[in-house]
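Hey team,

Filing this mostly as a record. A colleague (T.K.) asked me to run one chain through the structure pipeline before their review meeting, and I want the input and output archived in the tracker in case anyone asks later how it was produced. No errors, nothing strange. Just documentation.

Input sequence:
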Amino acid sequence: MNPQSVCTPYTVLLLVPTGIGATIGGYAGDALPVARAIAATVDCLITHPNVLNGAHLYWPLPNVLYVEGYGLDQVAAGYWGLRLVPGNRIGLLLDAAIESDLRLRHLQAADAARATLGLDLTDYIVTDAPLGVTLCTATSGATWGTIANPDSLLRAADTLIHQAGATAIAVVARFPDDEGSAALQNYRHGQGVDPLGGAEAVISHLVVRQFRLPCAHAPALRPLPLEPNLAPRAAAEELGYTFLPCVLAGLSRAPQFVTPSQRTPNRVGLAGEIWADQIHAAIVPGNACGSRALMSLSDRGTRIITVAENQTTMQVTAAALGIPAIAVNSYLEAIGVLACDRAGINPLALRPYLDPIEPVSAPLP
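Output structure:
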């Protein structure tokens, strides 16, 4: 059985890094069914926005924590903890590069979230300079990006936090339209890598690192022409003029980050706080095992489960890094391992053949 106390809520981290072409989780919200299934198996599931964000599609799950990637790294390393909150006051940060009609679409989406979902938003802010987002692709095929004016992003976030009282930040940056590119066409047909994911991560990382508050990003793009052969996994991104609704819904109850000096005794798990030493297991694509979060949790002895079916462009396995892991083929099998772990059952006992017990080799005198 996992070494954590049996009194601690059974907590699992689901990792599907963005911008690396994950077979499951490489599109807008297509790992959400996985998250829903795992959430029904555990007390608490921690995962990041790109797992849960499906543009206009999302699913409220009371035991799932929406945590930005840089924040996950800090939590896994033990530098920060997660404090559950009843709700956040979301500050909406808009890139000055967004055209007036596209800006209005996003403001209307924000007002719709206030009126229809009852979310708490501050007044919005527009950056004092265009953010200047550039998209890039690494030789591995993974995507990333740069921002020409990061200081403008941070100044706007600072104003929302210290003048408008925001406790979470939703960023909408103008991304380059790349309608005719082969990469985008491949993505719409269910192949290749999300061309936006890596750059989105850069934006949210900057805000979370600077202010230690929840943050997520929605790209502002012109709607694409209809595609009759659109892959189902890419369809969520083509439902409207904005990706903002899922971000606002996720941030509305995202946990706050706290430092060890702020740790509150007796506020364990779903009663208030979650720390790295309370995470029982982490699930990751089979060849994307090089993340800081996974390395930190492995060092702590957290159970690591790798899923072979979820292939990525990274080609970094647990075995290559010397990380002890349970290798399974699918998320269905991973859920079975979690169920066994909770019950204190050796997963091998569920297979038709079990090797007989053998004597321990004693060291020579």
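Quick notes for T.K.: The two ends are 32 Å apart (CA to CA). The longest strand covers residues 168-174.
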